[in-house]
Design brief:
Elements (H helix, E strand, L loop, with lengths): L2 H12 L4 E2 L2 H4 L16 E3 L4 H13 L4 E4 L15 E4 L6 E5 L4 E4 L5 H8 L4 E2 L12 H7 L6 H4 L6 E7 L5 E5 L10 H5 L8 E8 L1 E2 L3 E8 L3 H15 L4 E4 L8 E8 L1 H18 L17 E5 L2
Parallel strand pairs: 2-4, 3-4
Antiparallel strand pairs: 1-2, 5-6, 6-10, 7-11, 8-9, 8-10, 12-14, 12-15, 13-14
Helix pairs in contact: 1-3, 8-9
Length: 309
């Protein structure tokens, strides 16, 4: 089927405005968050409802047209790039279907942005923990496709650990339910296989996620190191000393003169214990000579500041 015929068929489902075919229109979809690697889609289509998404996938299956689903395009792995195939953008499906604070669950469409969900559940004392460092832009569907990880995974785990169930449409147009809202589903772990498959197994239509109690306090700690080896040894010692019981956010260890940040999120008493463990680990592993970083005027030893969550 020619691009023009396929484009008109898809436009009949989602409207002409939401089918892109010209080079200038597709330019922004040639890459994800890593712009050095580019691939041009054959065309792009953006359904706005669940029914439209189902109809689009079934139309593509009928036309035997390969496609690649895409969320916000903030990933860095190339999972959302469509190399001369149809790009299926799911970011318009952004409805929060239900929130169950008692059972700490929420069911959302794949285009819901992480931060939008967290703003909704924050007054309930809850949060959706995965944060791939693009919380303000990335979508739940993209998290699912990439099994997204970020600084929170040290404490909370990856996206797979926060998904109860997914309703998905397979490339042939069949709709399946993976996982279970309560307990474990029987048979093979198809939910685990689907999460992180980069859309190769299908497209999520709705996702039931696990919500986590919000931390009661936050401590931000910073330490400067003069060598990568020194920073790596301190980081390993900190992880071993606190055992994940309070440390939830860590940036990558920087090069000489750069900084390693740690935020501990827990109750105040546990936070204080974690801070003390970090100081002990740093004292054992770091250089005994306090110095100032050449990049910023931070003390070489650990400076702790307290702020509310």
């Amino acid at each position: 089927m020619s691009d023009g015929v396929l484009g008109r068929r898809l436009a009949g489902i989602v409207g002409e405005r939401f089918v892109l075919e010209r080079d200038t229109e597709l330019l922004v979809y040639n890459s994800d968050g890593l712009p050095g690697y580019r691939r041009r889609p054959r065309l792009a289509v953006f359904p706005g409802t669940r029914d439209e998404a189902i109809a689009v996938v079934r139309a593509l299956a009928d036309a035997k047209a390969p496609f690649v689903p895409r969320g916000a395009g903030t990933g860095l792995s190339g999972g959302a790039l469509a190399d001369n195939v149809v790009l299926l953008g799911m970011h318009r499906l952004k409805r929060v279907i239900s929130i169950d604070p008692e059972n700490r669950r929420a069911t959302v469409e794949p285009g819901v942005v992480n931060l939008a969900l967290n703003r909704l559940v924050a007054p309930l004392g809850l949060l959706y923990a995965p944060d791939p460092s693009s919380e303000a832009a990335c979508t739940i569907g993209g998290n699912i496709a990439e099994n997204a990880v970020g600084p929170h995974c040290l404490k909370y785990g990856v996206t797979l650990n926060h998904v109860h169930a997914i309703t998905a449409i397979l490339p042939d147009g069949d709709i399946v339910r993976l996982g279970a809202e309560v307990g474990e589903s029987d048979g093979y772990d198809l939910l685990g296989a689907f999460i992180g498959s980069e859309g190769c197994f299908g497209v999520a239509l709705d996702v039931t996620v696990r919500l986590t109690p919000r931390p009661q306090s936050v401590r931000t700690m910073l330490a400067d190191f003069l060598t990568v080896d020194e920073a790596a040894r301190v980081t390993s010692a900190i992880v071993a000393s606190v055992g994940g019981g309070g440390v939830s956010r860590t940036t990558a260890v920087g090069a000489a003169g750069e900084s390693t940040y740690r935020r501990t999120r827990s109750s105040t008493s546990r936070t204080d214990r974690s801070c003390a463990a970090i100081r002990r680990a740093s004292a054992l592993c770091a250089s005994a000579s306090p110095r100032l970083s050449s990049a910023r005027a931070w003390p070489a030893w650990i400076r702790s500041s307290v702020r509310s969550c």
